[in-house]
Specification:
Blueprint lengths: L1 H13 L15 H13 L8 H14 L2 E4 L6 E6 L2 E11 L26 H16 L6 E9 L9 H6 L8 E4 L23 E9 L3 E2 L9 H19 L7 E9 L6 E2 L2 E9 L1
Parallel strand pairs: 3-4, 3-5
Antiparallel strand pairs: 1-2, 2-4, 6-10, 7-9, 8-10
Length: 280
């Protein structure tokens, strides 16, 4: 199993679209992986809405042969490949959901869905795991144990889809889990591995509403401007990291939305709203 596991990890971690110096098994071609990735990229779906994506993945797994394909939740897929020899059970996981972001790349395979795009690389993750699945489907008799291919829904939206899958019990027998994430600041063809400790941050979100008092823009002294207050709040939040976190520790507070008022109208609004995330 150690040899097969090593091959599996190499396949999963190296099958990015432009991976260098990687010889893929004859069962799968670079052209196929690119085709899968571009199809998913062009047809993104938001968290808990991955109907077409999950169906696409399930159909491909069924076409590979040797897989038991399960649908533990409405928009997730688990492919199970039972090896020809006894051994432990391992799982490889990829996420499938997209973000509520308009794509403006101009690519031939750019998103055709308004205000939704694969801006976080989940299309690549899914294509890479599909490539790994197809390659290993042709090595069934050499595998000791069972390999689970987990295509998770709703990674981007709290609390996420992972718990939904776990709670079905479909992964109860898994002994070890492997996952990865593409990084645009990594050189092409390189793999980063952390031997211990956290590989990435976890996040918490919060919403904040500031209630002011409206007035005409020519008479601000009669109102309480939530935009001015909100601007101070945004700046002050950054001092949490710079003055309360131990230097060297990783922490980020990012304001992703600050909305208030109506453009081109000379009236002080009454409410300002924030959406933010903290990373630690």
């Amino acid at each position: 199993m150690n040899k097969i596991l090593g091959i599996s990890l190499l396949l999963f971690l190296s099958q990015s679209v432009k991976a260098q110096n990687v010889e893929l098994p004859k069962q799968v071609s670079e052209k196929e992986i690119i085709e899968w990735r571009r199809h998913i990229h062009q047809n993104p779906e938001l968290s808990f809405q991955e109907i077409q994506t999950s169906n696409y993945v399930a159909d491909l797994l069924n076409s590979f042969g040797n897989f038991e394909v399960l649908r533990p939740t409405k928009t997730s897929v688990v492919g199970i490949l039972k090896g020809g020899k006894p051994g432990k059970d391992v799982a490889f996981r990829a996420d499938m959901d997209a973000l509520p972001v308009q794509e403006e790349t101009g690519l031939a395979y750019a998103s055709v869905v308004p205000n939704v795009s694969h801006a976080c690389g989940h299309d690549s993750h899914t294509a890479m795991l599909l490539g790994t699945a197809k390659a290993l489907s042709g090595m069934k008799e050499d595998i000791n144990g069972t390999v689970y291919f987990v295509f998770q829904h709703a990674e981007e939206q709290d609390p996420g889809g992972a718990l939904d899958i776990i709670n079905t019990g479909v992964l109860n027998d898994v002994d070890a889990f492997f996952a990865m994430h593409v990084l645009p600041n990594m050189p092409v063809g390189h793999i980063g591995i952390l031997p211990n400790g956290a590989a990435s941050t976890t996040s918490d979100g919060f919403n904040l509403t500031i209630n002011g008092k409206g007035s005409h823009g020519s008479m601000p002294h009669l109102g309480v401007d939530p935009i001015v207050i909100g601007s101070e709040v945004v700046n002050s939040l950054q001092t949490i990291v710079s003055r309360n976190v131990v230097p060297g520790d990783l922490a980020v507070i990012s304001i992703g939305k600050f909305q208030s008022g109506i453009a081109n109208v000379p009236v002080l609004c009454e409410v300002a709203e924030f959406k933010a995330k903290t990373l630690d």
